[in-house]
Amino acid sequence: MNEVKKIGIAGIGNLLLRDEGFGVHVVQYLQNNYDFPDNVDIQDVGTAGIYMAPFLETCDPVLVIDVVDIQGEPGSFHFFSLADVKAGTFQTRMSPHQLGLLEILEVCKLRGEHPEEVEFYTIIPKELTESIELSDKAEARKVEVAEMIVQRVKDLGVDVRRKETA
Q1: Which keywords appear in this protein's UniProt record, sorted alphabetically (predicted)?
Q2: In which domain, by residue range, is 12 found?
Q3: pLDDT in the model for residue 10
Q4: Which end of the chain is more exposed for a tag (fewer CB within 10 A), N or C?
Q5: Whether the predicted pLDDT of 51 surpasses 60
Q6: pTM
């Protein structure tokens, strides 16, 4: 198929485990504060695993917002390209019992429909306790990462507008 692909924005994470839900919180912030045109597919994919395949098959590039399990300062921001991830710099599993994003991308590749470009906008989590609130460190990064995503989409030539506040 040679249809025009959408720009995909995917918030990954478990909303019930505090900072693990960072990607979901960022996507909710974007949806609440910005109007995206039809050629942008913005989704809270949560911990959907293989159910992400249809989304990944119709979007390119895909901007993934998630937490990352690496050494460093909790709350610090880290950007990775798909090449970085494939180089095995870090683990991309959403949770131990989920199919990792890389495996899902491989499935899409087998079907001949996969994004060429995947970018990861991540922070190191501070707390993974049971709570739907982000820690102070993650909360402090939420708007900043959301604005990076908006800027990236604008750089791709898409008109994104801030919603009018009543």
Answers
A1: Aspartyl protease, Hydrolase, Protease
A2: 6-155
A3: 92
A4: C
A5: yes
A6: 0.89
